[in-house]
Each structure stands twice: as C-alpha cells, then as structure tokens.
Design goal:
The chain is α/β, with parallel strands linked by helices. The chain folds into four domains: 5-101 and 230-255, 2-Layer Sandwich (YaeB-like fold), CATH 3.30.2310; 263-356 and 454-555, 3-Layer(aba) Sandwich (Rossmann fold), CATH 3.40.50; 364-446; 587-735, P-loop containing nucleotide triphosphate hydrolases (Rossmann fold, 3-Layer(aba) Sandwich). The chain is 41% helix and 16% strand. The protein has 28 helices and 26 strands. It has a seven-stranded mixed sheet with strand order 20-26-25-21-24-22-23, with helices on one face. The protein has a six-stranded parallel sheet with strand order 10-9-13-14-8-15, sandwiched between helices. A five-stranded mixed sheet has the order 1-5-4-3-2. A hairpin with a 4-residue loop joins strand 3 and strand 4 (62-70). The longest helix is centred in the middle third of the chain and has 26 residues, at 451-476. It starts with a strand and ends in an 8-residue tail after the last strand.
C-alpha cells in the first residue's frame, strides 16, 4: 500500500497533550510510519464497521482513530485506549458543519463525562463563601419540595442554535445544562464555534448579536455540501496540521507551539486573502493581530519568486517588539523565510534611509522628552506669557507640520488637524508657525534633530524616489528597470509591507511607508487597535494615500486573557469615541473571551507605603514567576524595586530595551513599558486621581477642554493596555482617591 497524507485535528491535539510523554513519543513515530505506508502490518490499520472511521496501532495500549476524508487523505481525530476504540462505536460523531463548512469530530461519551465533572462545583471558578458553622441538632423540618432547575438554554430552540452554527450532535446535551460550570466544561470540549456561541448567549447577547459578531465572520459564502469531506478539509474552519515538523513541535512544546499552526477561521481568511490594495485588521488585545501579521508575512514570502533580497518589510513602533517579531517569525517560518524580510522598528527604518542618503551629515538625535525641554527653554526665552505650552507646540509641530510635510505657512493655514482637538484660527496658526521656525533654528544651532524630523526627511527621500520611478516608467513606457546608468534605484524598496501596532505610527511614518512600496495588490497589510494608542499619533490613512476602505476587518476573540479581566478593561475605556485610523469610528463590539477565571481585585490602601506592602504580600501569595508590577510614574518603579529587594524578592525593571534581567520572576515598569508584553499575574498600582489621570492632564479640563478629552482617552488606553497584559489574575490598587477610570 502506498503512502498516505495524515493531518492532526486541533481537537485531537489538545487531548493528546494530556497523555503520558511516552505515548506522545509513540504518536510521533506512528504518524511518520503511517505517512510512509499505512499497510505496515505493525500498524494494524482497519476500517471500523461501515463508517469513515479507521483505527491504527500507536502502541500496545493506545489506538489512533482516523477519519478518512477521501483518496489517501486521513485526519487523526483522537488517540484512545485500545478498548475504547472498538467498543460502543455509536459514541463517535463526525460531520461537516453546514455554517462553517469545517469538519467536526465528537466523542459524545467524553462530552457527557466532561459536563458531569463540571456539575460538581459552582460559581465559575470564583472563591466560595465558607460553609456555615455546625448548629445544635433541632427537630427535623419537613423537606422542601425539590425546585426544578431551568436549563440555561431553554429559551433557544434547536433550530436557532443550529442556525448559529452549534454542532447538532451536542443539542441533547446542551438542552440539559443548568449551571455555568457545566457550560464552561462543555465549551472546553466542543468545537470552537459551538463553545463561542453558547458562551456569548449565556453572557446575555441576543441571537442576532451572536449571529453578527460570532457566526458570520466564520461562515462560508458558498453552499456547503455536508458529504464533501475533501473540500471541507481545505476550509479555514477545519483546523489541522499537515507537516511532520508541525506535529512534532506541538507534541514537544504543547500550547506554546499552537500559534504557529492553528489559526481561527477568521484569522486564516485574513492571512490568505488576496487584496487589491492596502488592508487593515483591527481587534482588541489578545485577539491575534500580531499572529495574523506574522502568518501574513510568511504567506507573502512563500509567493515571492525565488532569489531576490529582503522584499518584504515587517515593521512596528517599538524596537523591543521588532526584536520579538524577528524571533517569532524565525520560529514560525524558519530562517530562509526570515531572510527575505526586513524586520525593523519604524524609527530605525527612517534613520537608515536618511543615513544612507546623507552620509556624514546627520545631527545628534534627541528623544521626545529632550525635544519638549527645548520647547520649554525657547518659550522661557520669549520673555512674555505664552498662550501655548511646550507639549502642545511639540505635538502640533510633530504631528501636523512635520507629519504632513508642510513647507509653507500657507500650507499650514489649509492643513487638516485630525485628532488634535483644540481648534486654531488663522491668526493662531500664524503665531505657531513663527514659533516653530524659531524652534527649528534653535535645534540647528545646536546640531540637534528630533526623531520626528528624521522621519520627515526619510519620507521626503522616499517620495522623491517614488516620483523618479514613475517618471522613468512613463519615459520607458514599460516596467521600470532595477536601476539606470547612474545607479539610482528605480524599483520600490519593498514588494509588500506589513505593519504591527499601526495605531502608534505618525503621519510622517505613513508617508514614508506609502512611498516605499508601489500601489497595487497586497501592497500594505496593517494591524492595530486604536483603543491601545498610547503615543498620541492621530492620522487619517486615506488622506495619506493609503486607501483601506472596503478592506478592513476586525478580530473579536481574545486568546490571552479571561472574560472577567476583559470586562474590567473594557469598563476602563468608558463611553469615549475611538477612531479607526481613517476618519471613521471603531469599537469593541463582540470583543470576548472563551476563557474564564477570577474577577480582578480592586484594592484600596491608606498610603503609598501600605500599597507597596500590599504588593509584597500579593507577590508572596502568588509564589511563582510571570508576575509584573505596573505603575504610572517612573519614580514609583525604583521605590517598588527597593521594597521588593527588602523582602529578598528578585525583580527587574523594564527599560526601553526590555527587562534588564529577563529571567527575573517579577518585572516592574511604567504602563508604557508593558506594551506588547504579557504575564500570568499583574499588579497595577498607583491607579489614583492625580496619577491616573495625571494632575497635569486634569488642569487642562478648564484651560483646553478638547485637548483634555483627547489626552483623557490616551490615559484610558494606557490603563486598558496594562490590564490586558494579564492572562489569569489582576490586582488594581491605589491610595488616596480611586481613579475615575475604575468601576
């Protein structure tokens, strides 16, 4: 018998990870043998009655259960003890879901046992009230009549559940569920869409809301033939591995390797779709935007012609995140794929462009803090009261004047000021323009440049190259050559650009990127969430030549943190409006998690000293690693570190380059430093009025209401980002007056 194709079903992988290590090793050996020759006598491969199910020997005690999907294609759907495979075959159900078109496999006996195990506890994992103390015996009272418990889904018909994509074989079991623990147990076993639908209904969403937010994003457009398993195997809803290396990686690494292989159907659609131009994917924290971006890079590289250089750019705002993206891409796709990708943070990219063009003429660079200090010194030297503060002027100059590449005062008079809040008259703009001219002269006299200036210069350089390409192509009336006789580059720097954490990029960054790639299919893929904007860069992509309308998608399922933590985080955002990077509005409708856990703890203290003592006690209670302490101000980082050191607790501060000591069990940093990180347990301390939001921001409420509202949104985003770094547990503490952001 010739070789066969064997894939591993996502559901089977989760169950296999619970098996003994020796069995997992045998599974890897089995699948390798099966691919080469299913007829190998040692495998004892045979069909189970008149079905598409087959069994094969893994070792003396375990058998693989295989679903034949046509030809030589098989799916490993379960690994069971030998007896369980041959007895009561009616316990197994397999089907093609008529909504998603994906293959689903169920063991109804296992599902019943899991739900029965979930009925033994109450309250969804929260702490229970202590049992009452024993009381003296009294005369027995009459036993009350048993109260009939109403099933959780009594108000939803079978037809309604099927329309939402619930697996039909589970309907009888669903009809009997009466507690949240039973529901959570079933959701942990059921096909993914079934679990998501049931949890969303239980959370109070209407069937119409569930249909729109949960079901439709994964539904297939074509009519589903529920007998065509070969086609079903190719659909995103059928989550399977294929390569031996992938299976081995998952068996060895467990859940740490899953992101490399298994994508939610909505994620896979985004990764593999052909776009006619720039495309954007948004979504709340933990929804897999970065995972999608990495898989998209892999997909784009694999379609490139052989040879060539770094034809794909993968960029983000933060250099720590860029380093993490590089390591993750190598883990996902290997060094050969990564060699075709330039992975760099956006400011380094701009600096490289300027450096290669203006060799030896670069000035000393200063960061935002020093740049604002230069504004303060300039205003102090004016010798009169100013209507504008240094922060406002720096951002107006950086985001509007530099961001849009404005060269004249007349251009500034006409410029749009998206997201800037405070309106300016023509007289105001004239005054600000004159101040910025003096500011630029001040920097030049000291040989200084801000990062924003460097980005603007890089955008100018790339725009000039783009014009040269267009003019050359027009002259040649054909595709541009790689370079002309003078050596000028006449091809774009990149074929494709992928951006992660897009909400943090400035207008000048986007102008540079737009010029680095020619307009066309799959030119730019943009991932970000404006609810996580912490640097105050507001842009309209359409006005910058990046047309994403009609090519925007949203992810709503969080894989990082629990339902309870998300509820607190979303509450922090309040009722503020949030933009979509393109003059529209974005929201977190449908944002959810199928994970459940303890509710975040909100803990007041009488003083900062008491709060630091509380941090120590909480860390001792957790007694493990993957713990972080997040604070709003830099000075608080050192004081927390010192208090932990008093207790011999090893902690490491998070700097601009990441944690000083990555292996330290506790990391401490400001809210800005936690962007892109995640921890099992988080303490967010100092969340008090005057710190969150800051006293400086609160003073703007009367002086500049529009700027106040904009900066208040940014402060909310910081807390939102901090809370959603946690996977399991969150403690939010304060001393004094609790922040207005907290429930």
């Amino acid at each position: 018998m010739s070789g066969a194709t064997l894939r591993l079903l996502d559901r089977a992988e989760k169950e296999i990870l619970k098996l003994p290590r020796s069995v997992k090793g045998a599974i890897y050996d089995f699948q390798h043998k099966f691919r080469n020759d299913p007829g190998n006598k040692g495998l004892r491969f045979k069909q189970l009655k008149d079905s598409q199910l087959y069994s094969a020997r893994v070792n003396d005690d375990y058998r693989a259960l295989l679903l034949h999907v046509g030809g030589s294609d098989y799916i490993l759907v379960a690994v069971k003890p030998r007896g369980a495979v041959y007895e009561h075959l009616d316990r197994y159900r397999y089907q093609i879901n008529p909504v998603t078109g994906g293959i689903e496999f169920l063991d109804l006996v296992a599902a019943e046992e899991i739900v029965a195990g979930g009925s033994g506890s109450e309250g969804g994992g929260y702490e229970k009230e202590p049992a009452p103390a024993p009381q003296p015996e009294k005369q027995a009272a009459p036993k009350p009549e048993p109260v009939e418990v109403r099933p959780l889904f009594a108000d939803h018909s079978a037809e309604q559940l099927l329309e939402l994509g619930v697996a039909e074989p589970l309907l009888p079991l669903i009809a009997k569920i009466t507690t949240e623990d039973e529901l959570l147990a079933l959701a942990s076993y059921a096909p993914q869409l079934t679990g998501e639908v049931l949890l969303a209904l239980h959370d109070g969403k209407t069937p119409d809301e569930v249909l729109e937010q949960v079901t439709r994003p994964v539904a297939v457009e074509e009519e589903v033939d529920t007998r065509d398993y070969a086609t079903a195997l190719t659909r995103p809803a059928t989550a399977v591995t294929s390569a031996d290396a992938n299976i081995q990686q998952i068996l060895e690494q467990g859940d740490f390797g899953r992101w490399k292989v298994f994508l939610h159907p909505t994620q896979r659609k985004l990764v593999e779709r052909e776009y006619k131009g720039p495309a954007r994917v948004s979504g709340g924290p933990g929804t897999g935007k970065t995972i999608v971006a990495l898989h998209r890079v892999k997909h784009l590289v694999e379609k490139l012609p052989a040879g060539g250089g770094k034809d794909v750019l993968l960029t983000t705002f933060n250099k720590n995140l860029a380093a993490d993206l590089e390591q993750r891409l190598i883990a996902l796709a290997g060094r050969e794929v990564a060699a075709r990708v330039n992975i760099v943070n956006i400011d380094k990219l701009a600096s490289d462009v300027v450096a290669e063009t203006e060799r030896g003429r670069t000035r000393r660079r200063i960061d935002d803090t020093k740049a604002i200090k230069e504004w303060e010194d300039l205003l102090a030297g004016e010798g009169q009261d100013q209507r504008w503060d240094a922060d406002f002027l720096y951002e107006e100059w950086s985001q509007v004047i530099l961001g849009q590449g404005l060269k004249t005062q007349a251009e500034y008079w006409r410029a749009r000021r998206a997201g800037r809040g405070r309106p300016l008259s023509r007289k105001d703009r004239t005054e600000i323009w004159k101040l910025t001219e003096r500011y630029v002269m001040r920097l030049e006299s000291q040989g200084l440049s801000t990062f924003r200036q460097i980005t603007e210069r890089a955008a100018q350089i790339e725009a000039a190259r783009a014009r040269d390409r267009q003019e050359y192509a027009a002259r040649q009336d054909s595709s541009p050559k790689l370079q002309d006789e003078s050596g000028m580059r006449l091809r774009p720097r990149y074929r494709h650009i992928v951006v992660d954490e897009a909400q943090d990029l400035s207008a000048a960054h986007w102008r540079m990127l737009r010029a680095m790639v020619d307009r066309g299919p799959n030119d730019m893929f943009i991932a970000g969430d404006t609810h996580q904007r912490i640097y105050g860069n507001y842009v309209s992509l359409g006005n910058l030549g990046i047309e994403i309308r009609g090519r925007s998608s949203r992810l709503t399922l969080s894989y990082r943190t629990t339902h309870e933590i998300l509820a607190t985080a979303v509450c922090v955002l309040g009722e503020e409006p949030w933009d979509d990077l393109d003059d529209g509005q974005d929201d977190l409708a449908g944002y959810r998690s199928v994970l459940r856990g303890p509710r975040p703890v909100l803990q007041p203290y009488p003083s900062w000293e008491a709060e630091r003592n509380g941090i120590v006690e909480q860390i001792k209670e957790w007694d493990g690693d993957s713990i972080a302490v997040c604070v709003p101000e830099r000075w608080m980082v050192g004081e927390v570190e010192a208090r932990l050191a008093d207790e011999k607790i090893i902690a490491s501060a998070i700097t601009a380059d990441g944690p000083r000591h990555l292996d330290a069990p506790v990391h401490v940093g400001t809210m800005h430093r936690f962007k892109g990180l995640e921890y099992q347990n988080m303490i967010i301390a100092g969340v008090a009025e005057g710190l969150v939001p800051s006293a400086k921001l609160l003073r703007l409420e009367a002086e500049d209401p529009m700027t106040f509202r904009r900066e208040l949104r940014r402060a909310r985003s910081l807390v939102f980002v901090a809370i959603t770094r946690a996977r399991d547990n969150v403690v939010v503490s304060w001393n004094g007056t609790k922040s207005r952001f907290l429930p």
